[in-house]
Amino acid sequence: ETLETLIRQAENYTSILFCNTYRNMALEASAAVQEFFTDVGLYLFGVDVNPEEFVNRFFDSLFPLVYNHLINPSVTDSSLEYSECIRMARRDVSPFGNIPKRVMGQMGRSLLPSRTFLQALNLGIEVINTTDHLHFSKECSRALLRMQYCPHCQGLTLSKPCMGYCLNVARGCLAHMVELNPHWHAYIQSLEELSNAMHGTYDVEHVLLNFHLLVNDAVIQAYLNGQKLAEQVNKICGHPVRTPTQSPPCSFDPSKEKHGMKISTRNGEETLANRRK
């Protein structure tokens, strides 16, 4: 649930970036943004999707929008073939520099540990649920009852059994569970080590909530190299048809919470790292 909230918030940050800064392409970009974060969620929750593929797909979809609205804003081509050509040309002309590779690296380093952490937690829950319903013999039931309530018969309600007696009863009654103990301790230790390592570029919260900043850097880089990119695209795809373009405006108000676009403040208690600990 915490991860789902984090993914929604990161998606909102990215949508707000387009709505506030690149308003003309916000409506068209919304599908690519939604698809990207859907894939992030699917990967985190165990579905077999490839982070490298969905990162590439996002930037492939972004390039025609940047090209038509920022690099060549006064002309457009109505054919889907031309937009598809621009999309396919993205990997050849590298309009966003090394930012897609940076995103791939960050996603790979942060999503995989988080996915593994979730799978490990689910495994722990299964083990706990399995061992939470132990059936004791009559002898064990009597010993546990005696250990818990014998002092009460003498009016010593605050008295607790001595450590030696407690351990003897536990060892005798849980002897068949002893073999689980070293494996459980190893599991807990591995979980702690994994959790402790999930910071910086391995912290999925940091990576997802800062994704929109890298997207902004990518768009700016393409815009600054616009003339060179236009020449390269013209060589690959030809010249677009010269007709005036009227882009649909951003259709949602980022200040309204009903659209799911409002950024909530996050305090230290709400961070994923604290919940993980």
From TrEMBL:
Ranges of compositional bias, category Basic and acidic residues: 267-277
Cell compartment(s), UniProt: Cell membrane
BP GO terms, sorted: cell migration; positive regulation of canonical Wnt signaling pathway; regulation of protein localization to membrane
Keywords, comma-separated and alphabetical: Cell membrane, Glycoprotein, GPI-anchor, Heparan sulfate, Lipoprotein, Membrane, Proteoglycan, Signal
Lipid bilayer topology: Lipid-anchor; GPI-anchor
Entry's Gene Ontology cellular component terms: cell surface; extracellular region; plasma membrane; side of membrane
Keyword match Lipoprotein: yes
Disordered: annotated segments: 244-277
Main location: membrane
Superkingdom assignment: Eukaryota
Family, per entry: Belongs to the glypican family.
Reported function: Cell surface proteoglycan.
Protein name, UniProt field: Glypican 5
